[in-house]
Structure formats: C-alpha cells, structure tokens
Specification:
Helices cover 39% and strands 18% of the residues. By secondary structure, it is an alpha/beta fold. The strands form seven sheets. A seven-stranded mixed β-sheet has the order 3-1-5-6-7-8-9, sandwiched between helices. It has a five-stranded parallel β-sheet with strand order 12-13-14-15-16. Strand 21 and strand 22 form a beta hairpin.
Amino acid sequence: MGGGRVLSPVLLVGAGTGEATCGILYLASYLRRGGIEAFVRLWDGDETPAEVVRSLEGLVRRVRPKLVGISLKWFHHVDRALLIARTLRKIDPSIRIVVGGNSASYWWRELSAYDCIDHVVRGDGEVPLLSICQGNAAPPNCVTRTPDGRPTRLPLGYVQGATNSEDIYYSHFDELFLSQLDLNSFSGWVAPGKGCGENCLYCGGARGNQKAAFGRAKPFLRAEESVRKDHQEIASRTWQMRYDFAGSSAEFLGSTWAGVDLSRHCCTYFLWGVPRIELVDALARTFERVYMVVDIGCFSEQQRLEQMKRGLLKPCAKDSELIELIEGSRRHPNLAVEISGIGGLPFASQATLAEEVKLVERIIDLDCVIGYQRLEAQPGALVTEHPARFDMVSEAKTFTEFLDYFERREPGDVSVPMIRFKDAKLEAAVQRTSDQVDAMAWKHRDARRQVSVNGRTRLVNTAAPARRFTLGDWLGSHRAPARFAGEQVTVVRSVDGITLSCAPTLQPRKFSDPALVQGEDGAILLAALSTFERPTTVSSAVSQLGAKARLDPHSAQEVIDHLVDGRFLQPA
C-alpha cells in the first residue's frame, strides 16, 4: 500500500446513458477484493444537465465517495463524461475524479488538461485504480494532475495478458449495486478475452491503437477459471449471457460453462467473422435461445476482398461461406442469425452497390436479420485520420471537432460524425443504396415481429414470473424519497428482456420517475397480463378488462397490442 490517504468508498459510473460498460463491474469487483468499498451506478437515464445534477447529488449523499471513476469507453460519450466530471467537482471538490476506458486512453492528453479530472488511466485499469485508492503516489498507467495543475504521465507498466489476468473476474455482485434497477439492468456481458489483432480501417480499437493505448499488440483469451468465475457469479442474476470476442472456441467456452446451468438462459454473441460450426452447435446445446450477430465487414464481396487484400479489413467470409453458415444454423430451432455490415466503405462503385443490394435480398430471403449502418468517424481509425487516401472526407477528426459535434446534439439525438465520399455523384449513389438497404432491413425486422391479432387470436402471457420489490430497493435510497420507499413495485420482463416496472399504488402527482409505470397505467398493464395467464382469446380479454379495469374496448385493445409488441404476450 502507498503512503497516501486511502480513498474509499469509491463510486464507478458510465459516461453514457443506458447501461454502462461491463468494465466498471470488473473494476469494482477487483477493488472489493482489494479492500476498497466500491459501488457502481450501472444504469443512467438522465437526459438533461439538470437531471444529471440531481442524480449525482443523490449518489454523493448516499455513497459519500472519496473517488469517482468515470468509464469513457465510447467516444460519443466524451461530452457527457466532462459534464459528469464538472458536476461532481461542483458538488464536492474533495472527490478525486478518475477517467478511464478506450476513448479516455486515446484522448489522455486532451482530457488531462481539464481541471475537473485528477487522473486519466491509460489502458487496463484494475491495478492502476486500486493503486490510486491505496494512496500510491505513482500509480502505473496514470496521467495525474500535480498540485500546480501540470499533468505527469507514467508509462504503461501494467498490461494485461494471458499470464497476468487470472485475478480479473466478477465478484461481490450482492454488494456492488446501489439498486435493484441497476442489478436488473445488467445484460450479462462476459469478456472471454481482450484486445484485437486486426487493423480494420474503420475501427478506432484496431491493433495499432490497442498497442498505443493499452500496450497490447496481440489479443488474448482470459484464463478459463476466471471466465468460469464470471459465469458462476452472474448466472443466477441475469437472464442472458452476452459475448463479444473473436478467439473463443467451443472447447474454451465449454470449459468456462462447466458446472453452471445455462439451459434457461438466452445468449447473444457478437462475432467478428463466421464462427466454426462446432461453436454454433455448442451455443445451441447450452442455451435456451441463441442470437448470433455475424460481422462480415460489408455486403459487397468485391469490396470485402479488396480491403482484405490491402490489409485494411479482418478476415471475413465469402458470400458462399456466409450462406453455408446460415443454412447450417437452420438445424437449430433455438438459434437465430443476424448478418451485420457497414455501408459506404472505401472502394465503393456502382458494381459494389449492386452487390450489396443483391446479398441483402438473398439474406432476407433466408429470413435472417440484417444489421446495417453507414461508415462513421471513429477517433484514431485509419479512414478517420487519413480520409483523403480514400477520396473521402470526415465530419470530425480532432478531439475538439468530436467534442463540438456531441455538445451540439439535442437530448435524445444519437447521431455521430460520418465519413463521406468527395465525389458528390458517388456519395449520392451510396446514400441511395444505404437508404434502400436500411428500408429493406427494417421492413423485414418489422415483419418478423408482426403478430396478426384479431378477436379470435389466442394469446398467452410469456413474460418471466413477476418479481416484487419496495420502491426503495428498486430505485435505491438515493433516488426514492423516504416517505414512498415502502411502495410496492412489480417488475415484469418479456422474452426479449424488455422490462416493465409497475407501481400501481404510487400516483404520479406524489412522486414521478421515468423508470416506472405508475398509478392507473401500472394497474392496467398488470391486469392485462394477469388476464392472459392461461391462453385466452383477445375478445374475451377485452371483455374482462372492461369489467376489471373499466376499460372501453378500444383502450383495452390498445393495451393488448402494446404488450404484444413488447413480446409480453404471444400467440398460444
């Protein structure tokens, strides 16, 4: 331990809205095992600066943190990370503020110039953050502001690899979370490994930046025992597992699943290429339902092969290999496949645009979902840094340009800076194709989810069993007023993970929270779900809701349609 003041308790938060990255859970677990009282705020629904202030004031009153860590993994959260840091500085200037994550590591020079940030952790954060908390005057990997305001940078002395990461795993999940809402917002992310060995031209996390920011030239799989501990810790606390790594095999994952029953869990796997059929089979055997997202770079084989030949894209499948995977996956009725790619990549032409549409049509004909987006600017990506090499222009390149872009966005706007072609005619053609593919993809998605409902349709409640909490437990004492803390909240989750938090006895005029469906609205939703506990026709349910909830037929039908759309109700 260092000779400075020990900083505990610690609060870890994400810089974006929604669920924070799983990185703060690995960090908090590690800190707990190191003797630091660490907490996480995993879910953040604040949209306005005023809401941010109100939430952080409540969190600071509850936790009384000596240090707050802000996870800045994704570049489009940079403005919010700075807003959180400035707000915390005003609330309590004595709190030590630390920023870390991929984007923080890339922008460490710029971030360390802000007086609301005391440390920027570059690269892997477990040992550096514990070192700061223990009062070490020279924590590894850190850029630290000295008392006179100058940033000092220490080298990347801590780099995780296959032989020194055995002590990184989930633990203390009964102690980390400040509310049941936070715990139930956890989507089940497990990291089988870390790093990337590829140099895709569009990615800010490619091999070169991994080496510069994390000191890691090659990816690695974590120790099987550590990943097994992850599964053991979270299996009883989440309804699904989510993975995102290229190097996992059926043998590796099978070992990490040993002794953990996942037969009632769902699985989402984001794959960086076409998986071996053994992995597909293992996923289908292990989980109740599996959703595989297969990244193929782009939907034009010609474009894909050209980029691979130039070393600008990871190994991706040819169209024939992709179709073989889709058809081979059909033998598993519990497994669905989504094919994901980027539009507007370099070397586009009329021929490649026609190829894109043709392949998308073929994949949709096989009833596979399409994931599609146009090329965005990512800090540090080759095409962002040097767009002229590809006859393109980027809407943002520098820290200031990215920050200005995101600071100008209105609340709820999720747009990002894009990269476009200099040639106006080509750019227009690419955009037309993008719009066409996007429309095709969403039409197909909507058709897959569409359930034709009429009076004779028999529906059944397919949601997970409802759970009940007090308002104080669900929202946390930092968010729920003491006088309403005992109000009951009924939480219902659909098969897709959508959650309804109903507080029928809590009238909105007394206390209102966007995470809740309150008062009469909450009572109506629960009444509708209970009506379909057994297979029931829609016409019968409409009549029952008229008697139980005093709903007219039109309103009752709207409630039923809403629950069908969320997949709380499905055909019997």
